[in-house]
Amino acid sequence: MSDEYPSQQERISMRHFSGFPAGKHATVALPEQIFTELIPHIDNLAELQVTLIALWRLAQMRSDSAPWITETELCAEPAMQAAFGEAVEAEAAYALARAVARGTLLLGAWERADGTRERRYFANSPRGRAAVEAMAQGRPPMRAERVSHPNIFTLYEQNIGPLSALLSEELMEAERKYPAAWIEEAFREAISRNKRNWKYIHAILERWWTEGKDEEDRRNRERDRRRYIEGKYRDIIQH
Question: Percent helix, strand, coil in the chain (nearest 5)?
Fold first, then answer.
């Protein structure tokens, strides 16, 4: 038998994957370049594992600036513990150094208020590059927070279907414009009405944006509108 195939002993020790569960499950949107320009050339398993776990973790964050993760936070991830066990710190340090050298991740050093120096890792994206440059100039980027809301791409794929490149741009624009809770609720409303298409969902969001999402929002908007009209045209109205 060829050495390319796992031996009987390897098959016994290999942890078997039980398969993806039925029904809806969380997904993570990652750039296509990961699969076309990175994975084919990463020849070290630890680097591959750490790269994917770090990018997955960063994709779960939301921030006005680029999200980052520290080496300590990464080592505390259950997926890292499962992959490396007691050697997690040494393996993470080695793999992160390789990812930075390759250019997948960016490293920025920052001194906290208590004097502790912190190594922060960013994805090598436009926002990541801007954040590292800002830190080098002594300007701290805002801390990204891990959010429980599924992102708009996950909601679309789970409830409607596969994404096209053109639609991805529309979804990104909507995610920047509307609150995450609104997006979730708009998807739920569309599904409850059996209207599983983005055009319908976007119409819901746009109506809430222009008219107010609830009765209180609408009253506030109407009050502001009346104040504007009465203030601007008060002399005309009085005469």
Answer: 60, 10, 30
CATH number of 27-146: 1.10.10
Q: Return the domain boundaries, the chain.
A: 27-146, 152-229
What count of other Cβ atoms lies within 10 Å of the Cβ of residue 116? Answer: 8
27-146 with 152-229: one CATH topology? yes
pLDDT in tens, 77-116: 999 999 999 999 999 999 999 999 999 999 998 887 787 8
- In terms of C-beta distances under 8 Å and separation of at least 24 residues, what long-range contacts does 142-145 make, across chains too? 142/63, 142/64, 142/65, 143/63, 144/58, 144/61, 144/62, 144/63, 144/65, 144/66, 144/67, 144/68, 145/61, 145/62, 145/63
Q: Which two tokens stand for residue 101?
A: 């050298």
Task: Establish how many alpha carbons lie within 13 A of residue 85's alpha carbon, considering only the half-sphere containing its beta carbon.
Answer: 0
Q: Give strand pairing partners of 105.
A: 123
pLDDT, position 238: 43
Q: What is the CATH number that goes with domain 152-229?
A: 1.10.10.630
